[in-house]
Amino acid sequence: MKLNRKNKLLIGLCTAAFIMIAKLFSIQIINDKYKLAADNNSLVYNTIYPNRGIIHDRNGKILVGNKISYDLMVTPREVEPFDTLTFCEVLNVTPEFVREKMAEYRKFRSRIGWRTVVMIKQIPTETYMRFAEIAYKFPGFRGQARSIREYPYNAGGNLLGYVSEVDAQYIEKHEGEYQSGDYAGKTGIEAAREKELRGEKGYNIMLRDSRNKIMSRYQNGEMDKEAVPGNDITTTIDAELQHYGQMLMNNKVGSLIAIEPSTGEILTMVSSPGIDVDKLADIGKHYSDIVSDPYKPMFNRTVQASYPPGSVFKLVNGLIGLQEGVITPNTHYPCSMGYKFGRNKLGCHAHKSPLSFEESIMMSCNAYYCYILRDLLENGKNGDIAESMDKWNEYVKSFGFGKKLGSDFPSELGGFIPDSKYYNRVYGKGRWKATTVISLSIGQGEIGCTPLHMANLCATIANRGWYYTPHIVKDSESVRIDDRFKEKNYTMVDTTHFQKVVGGMYRAVNSGFGSGGTASIAHVEGLDICGKTGTAQNPHGDDHSVFICFAPRENPKIAVAAYVENGGFGATWAAPIASLLTEMYLNREISESRKPLEKRVLEGNLMHKVKVKKK
Predict the structure, then answer these.
(1) For 313, phi and psi rounded to 5 degrees?
(2) CA distance 568 to 542
(3) If you average pLDDT over every residue of the chain, what do you get?
């Protein structure tokens, strides 16, 4: 049957009407999205901030916990005339502060509208409770609970890091994750594990009337969202050892790091001077004083300072020499107060001559390692000197130097190990030779590394040729660590060569005074400490004191690196500090015979030796 024009029009109208009715039914009955959008004009969202995850040490002690404080919130358009003096007295603020804030709100009235903003941050609980009793007198003001950090144990601000309010730049960098008023970890462990620690915000939805007065919970709270607490974290740090390490480094500039060789777990990480934990909870109040301190307490020297390693680097060159066959454990070299080349001389201290390989470590002979480096670069086995230099560079980097180790601690630097391209740029291709770069033999020249690199070198030797990437967070059900922290990293030197280096380090500490051992001061009866001293040249003042050690000799439990700026010889400050830390970890006390040494270290003040730019 053929439809006429009238019937076609009626069918079209009916179809359109059906579609419209169906759509309206969907919008009004089935889908409440638009209803919610309309309701949003009369809804108030009160943010619920989650408790941040707790940070524990390896033994379960709380390094960073939480306590409750309150932010005083204000909705400017709800504020009525109030008793300013009572308000100020209860909240411990000045009338000038209140007047300035209210003037600011009036100035930006159109922009703020009915928004609720923070007026006073982090009010102590006891102060807020006094205000809560009379809050009815101050319409437009309300409190919002927020947890802030507290520090039951002084484990060091540089290690733990601080939490502060995010700024516009941080919000933009982490798009969609934060908004104004949120807090985030900015340094240390707080920053490294921000995603696990922060938790997830919740909210309560309140309904207000046509006069913008809060009436009741929206839909009886059915659409509220609970805050999700952050995950707790267990670190590898030993809280008591960390605290003791900070005491040893007090009034000294430098670093002290301890690693468990069998796991790569960092036991202690001290950067001195550092930030006192008492200042972390209210970092905003102390920030200007901290950043203006000429000793730069926010600068984490353990992973950010690039130092010459000094004589501890001789161990690396010795191992490369053994691997390349330019020396054997029985190779003897002479030393006449240093190594002469042409009209020049790289000096050394007085000791017996000639020496074997182990004796060269025990006595820290400079000349011995000049011979090794020269033989490595000029023996022709790996081609010309440029090719030999690049081979040496490859060996050194297999120990973790010249690159970031890949720790889970933020802001780690990679240091620098020179190669042939570098020297070709500096001197010209073919215009340099082994004696030009001879200072590399004793860990000087262009070599730069962090104290973490040196601690990792010590752990590598303790393990006889391999290391786990150092890390500061332990694996747990709530927080997993990357698989790369469970993979062994092997050097290019065969493990059999490490026994001779260990023998030399053992003799350096345990040969007794007067027998040539440069690290005799680090000896502790029964611990079998193996160590190597270093004195790193410093063109800006006294030399730096360096020492690495591990203990016991077999199945080592701890590897330590101490670096004390302007501390002089390695045995003067670094060796006592590292050995005391080792003794405390293994014995949990300092023996009576070493109490005078401990007293000297604890009372020692080297701050006057460090040249700083004062503002």
Answers:
(1) -75, -15
(2) 6
(3) 89
Q: What are phi and psi of 317, to 5 degrees?
A: -65, -35
Q: Rounded to an integer, what distance in angstroms lies between the CA atom of residue 447 and that of residue 393?
A: 11
> Rounded to whole angstroms, how far apart are CA atoms 145 and 75?
16
Size (the chain), residues: 615
Which of 248-262, 284-298, 312-326 has the least mean pLDDT? Answer: 284-298
Contact residues for 381 (Cβ-Cβ < 8 A; gap 6+): 324, 388
Positive or negative: CA dihedral 107, 108, 114, 118: negative
Q: Are 242 and 266 in contact (CB under 8 A)?
A: no
pLDDT per residue as tens digits for the range 461-489: 999 999 999 999 998 888 889 999 999 99
Residue type, 365: C
Q: Report how far residue 147's alpha carbon sits from residue 51's, in angstroms, rounded to the nearest whole number.
A: 6
510: which 2 tokens? 């345990």
Q: Position 419: which residue type?
A: D
Give 450's Cβ-side CA count (13 Å radius). Answer: 27
Instruction: Please give the pLDDT value at position 20.
Output: 78
- DSSP character at residue 26: I
Asked if 205 contacts 223 with a C-beta cutoff of 8 angstroms, the reply is: yes
CA 224 to chain centre: 37
pLDDT recorded at residue 115: 74
For tokens 């000294």, the residue is: 252
Sign (positive or negative) of CA dihedral 209, 213, 216, 221: positive
The pair of three-digit structure tokens given for residue 272, joined into one six-digit string: 């001195």
Question: How many CB atoms within 10 Å of residue 339?
Answer: 26
Residue 184: both structure tokens together: 């985030």
Say whether the peptide bond before residue 470 is cis (omega within 30 degrees of 0). no
Coil, strand, or helix at residue 550? Answer: strand
E strands, 97-226, are 117-124, 141-150, 163-165, 183-185, 202-208, 214-217
